[in-house]
Design a protein that fits this description.
The complex is a heterodimer of chains A (about 190) and B (about 300).
Chain A (H helix, E strand, L loop, with lengths): L2 H23 L5 E2 L2 E2 L3 H12 L1 H18 L6 H19 L7 H23 L8 H29 L7 H10 L15
Antiparallel strand pairs in A: 1-2
Chain B lengths: L1 H28 L5 H23 L1 H56 L6 E10 L8 E4 L12 E3 L4 E8 L4 E5 L7 E5 L5 E7 L2 E8 L12 E4 L16 E7 L2 H7 L2 E5 L8 E6 L1 H5 L8
Antiparallel strand pairs in B: 1-2, 1-12, 2-5, 3-4, 3-12, 4-5, 6-7, 6-9, 7-8, 8-11, 9-10, 10-11
Classes of the chains: A mainly alpha (about 190), B alpha+beta (about 300).
Chain lengths: ~190, ~300
């Protein structure tokens, strides 16, 4: 595999490792309205939005597994949910290619909702005996709002980190064209004139 | 090419989901000593120093964010504690008022058992208002009227002594003229010497009662108690039952006593802090006349 092909997995691995450590060591200890901020679903959703469904799903699986290992949770629960988040965000990019600046906000809110509600459902399925109360619903709503709030900064950070390593990144494609002796797009004949 | 990409994506997705479900199923069915749990413990052992270092390094940032949350929590807690303080303050005020009322009501009960008022039907009433200008007209309103058997002229007592008499009676309220009112006069008897006199308030200082019209050879000392005489004589007629404490002697001026037959008293009843009083009703109806003794 060439150096450029390794860049994205290496960057994503470093990003996932550092992000989960920071999440566990610092971010999860900060509560707003009684709810901890969870950046991991936002991270996975951003990777899916920027890199596509396959990298998103793989990154989601890896981050989820790491979270389960680090927090001594049932292995597979978080990774299952994060696969869904990464894959869905990637498919949204591949099918719709949304360009609106607020797309990460909605995707972040949806990712947080999937992570929070899905985790609760899986815990209930696994036999955790906890009553469904208004307090729980309120916390879910607050968590989704917080996810939406932090989605843009997280997306900007992920974009900055993976920028240049994405397979179809326009800047990289342009740079490669110039360095290999290709013509500038302005001087290149159009497709229709051939 | 496209089909291969789609196939690869789907296969990868299915593999990842299957692996997750496999891990979940295996982990869920395992005991603590199983391989997956061992792997998890190993990862924790490796990660814990990193987590600890990261936790220490990120403590300032965490504290900064925590400060905002703590400030909001502290404000919320402050508001809750203020509300709680106000609630408790109201309770304390209520308790103190209840204790004071209880003390006065106990005094009224003791008064009835201590003094000879069995011929009367006492009606306990709450003081509802007070005349703000008490230099000349010292009256209070009570929440018992003719509906409760109260009539004009009925004696009114508190837990410690004589208060006054009913000057106006309506359906469910009455006006009581205190013994410190300038229109009031009470026939009194010095308990020590049994000398009779007329008790009236001093002009300009209602809480200084004057006992005048004492006999020429009357003797009195500071601290002597003056009670109602219950007299029916024309000279010193009294609408009050006998032996109800009126006041204590505060000043005896020999010259004043010799020239004006007058001494000074202080009311025994705390007339400025009345909450409950008792109206002695029914005396006339019971006996045809008040339980009074001759001079």
């Amino acid at each position: 595999m060439s150096e450029t092909n390794w860049q994205l997995p290496l960057r994503l691995a470093a990003l996932g490792f550092v992000a989960v450590i920071v999440q566990i060591a610092a971010v999860s200890q900060v509560t707003i309205f009684g709810v901890s901020i969870d950046l991991a679903p936002l991270l996975v959703a951003s990777v899916g939005l920027l890199a596509g469904s396959l990298p998103g799903a793989v990154f989601g699986f890896a981050v989820g597994l790491f979270v389960d290992l680090a927090l001594v949770q049932t292995l597979g629960v978080t990774s299952l949910l994060y696969i869904l988040i990464g894959y869905a965000a990637g498919r949204l990019r591949e099918l719709r290619d949304p360009a609106h600046g607020l797309v990460p906000v909605f995707v972040g809110a949806a990712a947080t909702a999937i992570a929070t509600v899905g985790f609760a459902l899986l815990q209930f399925l696994l036999g955790v005996d906890a009553p469904v109360s208004w307090l729980l619903l309120r916390q879910v709503v607050v968590a989704i709002l917080l996810g939406a709030l932090f989605a843009l900064p997280v997306h900007a950070l992920v974009r900055r980190i993976v920028e240049g390593a994405l397979p179809d990144d326009p800047r990289r494609r342009r740079r490669r064209a110039y360095t290999t002796g290709g013509l500038s797009p302005l001087s290149r004949p159009s497709q229709g004139s051939r | 090419m496209y089909d291969r990409q789609v196939r690869r994506r789907r296969v990868t997705l299915i593999v990842l989901v299957v692996v997750s479900l496999f891990l979940l199923t295996i982990y869920f069915g395992e005991d603590e000593g199983s391989p997956l749990h061992s792997v998890q413990r190993g990862v924790i052992a490796v990660l814990s120093p990193i987590q600890e270092g990261a936790s220490r390094a990120l403590k300032p940032a965490r504290d900064l964010f925590g400060w905002f949350g703590d400030t909001m929590d502290a404000k919320k807690e402050r508001d809750q504690l203020r509300a709680q303080r106000d609630r408790l303050l109201r309770q304390v005020v209520d308790y103190q008022a209840a204790i004071a009322e209880n003390r006065q009501l106990r005094g009224l009960v003791n008064m009835r058992s201590s003094y000879d008022v069995d011929a009367y039907t006492p009606v306990t009433a709450r003081v509802t208002f007070r005349n703000p200008n008490n230099l000349f007209r010292d009256t209070i309103g009570i929440d018992a009227g003719t509906g409760a058997g109260v009539h004009v002229g009925d004696a009114v007592i508190s837990g410690s002594g004589l208060v006054g008499h009913v000057s106006t009676a309506a359906g469910n309220t009455s006006i009581v003229t205190l013994i410190t009112d300038q229109r009031s006069y009470v026939s009194g008897r010095l308990l020590a010497s049994q000398d009779l006199g007329l008790v009236k308030p001093s002009l300009g200082d209602p809480l200084d009662l004057q006992m005048s019209q004492l006999p020429r050879r009357a003797t009195a000392r500071v601290g002597d108690v003056v009670v109602t005489a219950g007299s029916i004589s024309d000279r010193l007629e009294s609408p009050y039952p006998p032996k109800i404490p009126i006041g204590t002697v505060t000043r005896v001026d020999a010259e004043e006593l010799a020239s004006n037959n007058r001494i000074h008293l202080s009311p025994i009843a705390d007339l400025r802090h009345l909450d409950f009083v008792q109206v002695l009703t029914g005396g006339d109806d019971a006996d045809g006349a008040r339980a009074q003794t001759g001079p």
